[in-house]
Amino acid sequence: MWDDFRHLTTSSPSRFAVLVFASLVLLFTGLLSLPAATTSGQSAPLVDAVFMAVSTICVTGLTTVDVATFFSPLGKVFIFIGVNIGGMGVLTLASILGLVISKRLGLRAKLIAASDSNPLRTHGGPVNEGQTVRLGEVGQLLRTVALSTLLIELILAILLYPSLIFAGIAPLDALWEAPFYAAMAFTNTGFTPNPGGLVPFADDYFLLTVLMAGVFLGSIGFPVIYALWKNVWHIRLWPLHTKLTLITTVALFFAGAAAFLVLEYNNPATFGSMNAGDTTFQAFFLSAMTRSGGFSVVEIGDLYGSSLIVGSMLMFVGGGSASTAGGIKVTTLAVLALAVLSEAKGRPSVQAFGRRIPSDVQRVALSVVAWGATIVALSTITVAQISQEPVSDVLFDVISAFGTVGLSTGLTASAPEAAQYVLAATIFMGRIGTVTLAAAVAATSRSQLYSLPVERPIVG
Questions:
Q1: Alpha-carbon distance 156 to 145, whole Å?
Q2: Of 24, 137, 267, 325, which residue is 20 to 30 A from 57 by alpha carbon distance?
Q3: What sign does the CA torsion over 257, 263, 265, 269 have?
Q4: Per mean pLDDT, which range of 295-304, 381-390, 414-423 is the poorest?
């Protein structure tokens, strides 16, 4: 039995990663079902326990209950532990567990871990030395993941603590809520431990800025943190993945803020009653949170339909690869945008910053978008049919689930149980990643030793 288990960790890390996350969901479903985990002292309903376990392990933030009032301190401890486990990432977690079980990382497992450190290596075939970290650096990368998580969350907690005190929270309560908020920010989850969520802190721009910084660090991904840690002042030494991630992330951050500012400035339910400074700041905050953060100061259900569409677009893209964020990832968007630009200019290859992006990476990017769009479409149709709610609200919550964002128009909590189970499945598929999911269900990778005749169908 143990030999079979060890074989699974090294021969198929992708399927092992899916197995690990499914097992964690089952474990935390049991933990959150304990009577001691709720304030009422009664076991949570199965649908709520399952949904919260999936949302916790997949660092999503969508809820069917009010976390602050439904769960006891013990239940919140379970959630805190769960989001930190889930935030480490699918492949990174699988590699660590595989290392513990097999005492060493096999060559194939190292290649998978290397692919987590550089998402350009998320496909089968020969390993291109320029596309992956050296195998000797994999152990260092895994240590960086754990240490950076602890260090960043500690710094965020220290910065958040005074603001919680000034907001009137008791010092002992703030001593617990500060690391809770720090973990929810860095893991891009968005659960709040106090009643009212962030509404009591709506005017505390320092606290909101710290949360935005935590969300940003979590969303750019561990490979980018790793690259910046090594060459923070040497931009020319940054890998192409780091450059594409940072540029696309910043561009979407400002574009999203501008869109929300234009669309919501006259909405009396959101920004209409604010002055210019407050409106601008809240537009940037909303832009950051729709990328994957999940925190909100305004009621999402009060946004105009046009803003919900913009938010859905931002959530579908998500954050960086191998990060705590979800979505199709910003590098996927960047690669496809560069491919379109290269095609428009008639270039024979896709290029960026003096580097050529191979065609297999472009195919992976296209596959990720196709899988993501298919999952969102099927889930939207199913939830809309079950709930009979407006499609705009359903689409927003479904994409929020797929992108593991956590923002909701209010539909998730009020939807029928069947719809909530569909949303939970969407969260799971969105978190483990479309590429990982495809690799996990594939029986084996077969090499083809011959080429078929070429024929060009008409496209466009």
A1: 16
A2: 137
A3: negative
A4: 295-304
Residues 6+ apart with CB under 8 A from 390: none
Residue 352 backbone phi and psi in degrees, to 5: -160, 130
pLDDT in tens, 163-195: 999 888 888 989 999 999 999 999 988 899 888
Long-range contacts, stretch 247-252, CB < 8 angstroms, 24+ apart: 247/334, 248/330, 248/331, 248/333, 248/334, 249/216, 249/219, 249/220, 249/291, 249/319, 249/320, 249/330, 252/287, 252/291, 252/314, 252/317, 252/330
Residues, the chain, total?
A: 460
Asked if 257 contacts 287 with a C-beta cutoff of 8 angstroms, the reply is yes
Rounded Cα distance, 408 and 5, in Å: 39
324 pLDDT more than 70: yes
172's enclosing H/E stretch is helix 171-186
**Residue given tokens 């949360």 in the structure block:** 211
Contact 257, 284 (CB under 8 A): yes
Where are the chain's structural domains?
8-121+138-438
- Residue 23 reports pLDDT greater than 70: yes
Residue 121's pLDDT band (cuts 50, 70, 90): very low
- Rounded distance, CA 328 to CA 367, Å? 10
The predicted-structure confidence for 388-425, as pLDDT tens digits, reads as follows 999 989 999 999 999 989 899 989 999 999 999 999 99
User: Could you tell me the two tokens for 40?
Assistant: 């009422």
Element (H or E) spanning 357, and its range? Answer: strand 355-357
User: The dihedral of CA 169, 175, 176, 182: what is its sign?
Assistant: positive
Instruction: Spell out a b/e string for 17-31, using b for 16 or more CB atoms within 10 Å of the CB, else e.
Output: bbbbbeebbeebbeb
Largest Cα separation within the chain, whole Å, is 73
Do 70 and 304 form a contact (C-beta atoms < 8 A)?
A: no
Q: How many CA atoms lie less than 13 Å away from 428 in the CB half-sphere?
A: 21
Q: Confidence class of residue 200 from pLDDT cuts 50, 70 and 90?
A: confident
Tell me which amino acid residue 301 is.
G
pTM value is: 0.86
**Three-class SS of residue 71?**
strand
Q: What is the C-alpha to C-alpha distance for residues 234 and 221, in angstroms, rounded to an integer?
A: 19
Mean pLDDT (whole number) for 13-37: 87
Amino acid making up residue 392: S
